[in-house]
Amino acid sequence: MARLRVNPTRMELMRLKRRLRIAVHGHSLLEDKLEGLMNEFRDLIARYGKARQELDAAYPAVVRLFVLAAVTSSRETIEGAVAQARGRLTVKASQRNLLSVRVPHFEADLAPGGGYSLLDAPLALDQAVADVRGLVPGILEMGEMEQGVWLLMAEIQHTRRRVNALEYVMIPNLRETIRYIQGKLDENERGNITRLMKIKEMRLREEREAMAARRAR
After folding, report:
1. Exposed site from 34, 84, 98, 156, fewest CB < 10 Å?
2. What topology is assigned to 10-156 in CATH?
3. Where residue 150 falls among pLDDT bands split at 50, 70, 90?
């Protein structure tokens, strides 16, 4: 571990101890945030997987209905009916806060399309059009969740890097520097005590010599 390049003074020691307390507290908060992000990520992945399975199961059925309609009617009839049944889709996009991550939220408003001749169009087409309209909310929800997965993944990686930087770099460096300064201060204090003891010893010796000189007179 590396030691910070600072002057070994008491003021610097107090400043580094304060930084260490803040770093340790920040590390604890980031670990809690990382755990919360991981829980949200696992929950979102599970919901996304379930929604994907449901969509994958529903989509082939819709395709089969369109194929059946195409087999039982002419192409012109199918294309005309689909064009008339087309509705206007309005998507309102917003954001919601998920552990400081702004994830998207979509709300869909699918206006009903125009009618078409039920006499010309096959029954399978009616069901296919209804099923397609029913898939729209699920598709938007999947897009919302997929984007949320990527955003959460990026935030998890960013938070993990910050946790690792504090745990393996900053906090050890601060502790090592604090030990170094404390050692230097203790060494200086021992040196001062030793000098004071020597000065005291010299004064006592001078006083004894002075007393002996006075007695010899």
Report:
1. 84
2. Helix Hairpins (1.10.287)
3. very high
